[in-house]
Give the backbone structure.
Amino acid sequence: MNKMTAVGTRWIGLLVAAWLGVVGVGLFVPLMDNDSAHHANIALRMYLTGDYVNLVDYDGPYLDKPHLHFWLSALSYQVFGVSGFAYKFPSFLFSLIGIWAVYRAGGVLISRAGGLLAAIIYASSASFLLSLNDVRMDAILTACVAISVWQIAGYWSTQHIRYVFGAALGLALGFCTKGHVGELVPLLFTVSYSFFSKNWGPLLNTKLLFGVFLFFLFISPVVYCYYLQYNLHPELVVRGRDQIDGVRFILWEQSLGRYSGAMGGDSGGDKFFFFHTFLWVFAPWSLLGIFCFFGKKESAAPGVVSRSSLLVLVLFGLLVGFSSFKLPHYLNVILPISSLWLAAVAQRRSSAFIRYSRWVGWFVWLLIGVAAGLVLVWWFPEQPLWFWAGLFVFFFFLFYSIRKRGEVEEVDRVVHLFAAVLVVFWILNGAFYNRLLLYQGGNQLAKLSDARALPGKIYSLKGCYSSSFYFYARSLREEVSAEELKDKSGFVLLDKKQIGELNQTGVVWKSRFSVLDYEITKLTLPFLNPKKRDGVCTNLMLVELGGR
């Protein structure tokens, strides 16, 4: 084990530098017009108005997620100014802490070498890297889960009071980010680990009562804000309902309502959603884990960590399967447990791990070829020089990792896969997303507005939404009808299809600025084809009002 740790340690500096390069590029990719830009605007309202109690989006009170993500983003705006980087930076910092937490948890539960493997696996899983580009709440939430598992593992090992404090803080931060789902995975792991280790003593320790007290103390700022916003204002209407008990909502209804479908839902019928979505969320490591699990068995039986982690994954998969609302990024919370599971497998079944990792390596090479061919040859062949220079460096890193042989082959295999994953994400972050965001009209129109220093107020015609425009224009959305525009001056944001509405209503306008616009989170083959792309795009416009 010491030899394995030493071999792994020699790679750390290079791994960290390469990972920071890929993630760093993603931090400067513009925000997408989905949850990212939407959440960024909620935080922007906090920053511009100074109101850090009330959560408000475009249509009024925002009754869904808790405050922590928005508070951190607004604080980042205070430090760095309003930018996509400032919005993403808190998630980046939390993710660094989360990687460290996975390493420390693995060190307690498996070994120092196992913790190192778990951290490398966790930091290079597909959905984790995506969450640092298309930033929602899940990067912070996943880090909180990792912190909680680390502190719970430390408590089980030592029963020291400082771990009770740390576990309560980790669980509370997860709750303040996205509700009770932040507690679910760590608590499932606690029960599962107690069962397989046959050690229930720590659960019966009275120190846990202090932890429960600390948990409620730490979440009290969020609960109090819900009390101020809703309990003291029963007239507020959200989703057709008034007389809202904000405290009850955040302590009970927020998670239950989303699970049951009371707050809306998706198709909800796919009971195997977790199991096939897990394949890409934890890619490429999910394939390796599945091969090791179903492949030829070795003499070494699964250890406590392997069995505990696997039970958590199965239970969480069943819960997600029966949920009425499920999206792929919801699975990010199980990435720390998944990484610990695979690291434990690598330690106990090293020959199977090495054998199957070669197969997975060929799969990632195929993925590199497909990504490079589609993105760089067909979809977006025009790339800046810095991208090509970086791609050369990352390919050099990949081939160096293959040729540089260590004494412990499982470390070599993990490093090879890690390097290959970074090549894929350099292509995605540096080439694909940067070019794709040129077709998101909101951020492009905001850039044009800034460059021309357009005078006057900018309104939004009813039915036109562009979170990215208002975020990058650093202004709050004010929706008006076409009739209301007759007596106004300034500019109005609208879709090309709505220009007839202005003419029919008799609104006088003088000039317009237009950019191509496409809903880039819903890609289609005609859009990806450069020859057909412009034909499937619409236009987002800023129209200068002429008054009467």
Remarks:
- The chain has a mean pLDDT of 89.
